[in-house]
Write a structure and sequence with these properties.
Blueprint lengths: L1 H13 L1 H28 L6 H24 L1 H9 L6 H38 L15 H4 L5 H21 L3 H20 L9 H7 L7
Helix pairs in contact: 1-5, 2-3, 2-5, 3-5
């Protein structure tokens, strides 16, 4: 019986490095999830009600506390590995087998309960909408989204030109087609004036109306 107990103790001492390494890896993973939960909580805070904010704050705090409690028990073995090139001293191994492993088991069980709640909180945060992009009063997209399209500037300029043309036509009482013909006629007359073919003077109303399609000659 004594030999069997000695062999079991030897196996436990040999397993200390692997056990503590696995626990430290788990603790570091959970602490990373705590940081992610804090980031999501801050990003999507406006989409949560008061009860959800308080619950998530409590879960994040409790999980962080439980993870550091396990890390404190593993601190001696962590320091040994950093200072002894990955090895754990025999004294640390004995303390782990006789005392620290039992403490770590209880604290680790508490950590797992908190971690389950933390995962639920992270899932809720992922499903909540993030902060909305600000919109203009007319419901247009942000300028940075518009600038993603190569033709956004040309489209905006064309829309403004069409709006100015329509508003001018309504004020003059003429339709869009007549407005275009009038602009072409005036452009031709301006070209003739610049070439010296037509003397400057009052524009003949009869000649103008004759060139306007659909207009009645008085």
């Amino acid at each position: 019986m004594y030999e069997v107990a000695t062999v079991k103790a030897g196996f436990k001492l040999q397993a200390v490095e692997q056990q503590t390494t696995d626990l430290l890896t788990t603790v570091n993973h959970i602490l990373n999830e705590v940081r992610e939960a804090c980031r999501l909580h801050q990003l999507k805070n406006l989409s949560l009600d008061t009860g959800e904010r308080e619950w998530m704050d409590r879960i994040i705090t409790e999980t962080d506390t439980a993870a550091h409690a396990v890390a404190d028990v593993l601190e001696s073995s962590r320091v040994d590995r950093e200072t002894l090139q990955g090895k754990v001293r025999i004294r640390t191994r004995l303390l782990w087998v006789l005392r620290d492993s039992h403490k770590a088991a209880d604290k680790y069980a508490r950590l797992m309960v908190c971690h389950q709640s933390l995962v639920s909180a992270i899932t809720i945060l992922h499903n909540r909408p993030g902060p909305r992009s600000p919109l203009s009063s007319g419901g247009l997209l942000l300028q940075q989204e518009l600038e993603g399209s190569p033709s956004w500037s040309a489209e905006l300029e064309n829309n403004m030109d069409r709006r100015v043309e329509l508003e001018g036509n309504r004020g003059m009482g003429v339709g869009p087609s007549m407005s275009r013909d009038l602009k072409e006629m005036l452009a031709r007359r301006s070209k003739l004036d610049s070439d010296g073919e037509v003397k400057t003077g009052p524009i003949s109303t009869t000649a103008d109306t004759a060139e306007l399609p659909g207009s009645d000659i008085m």
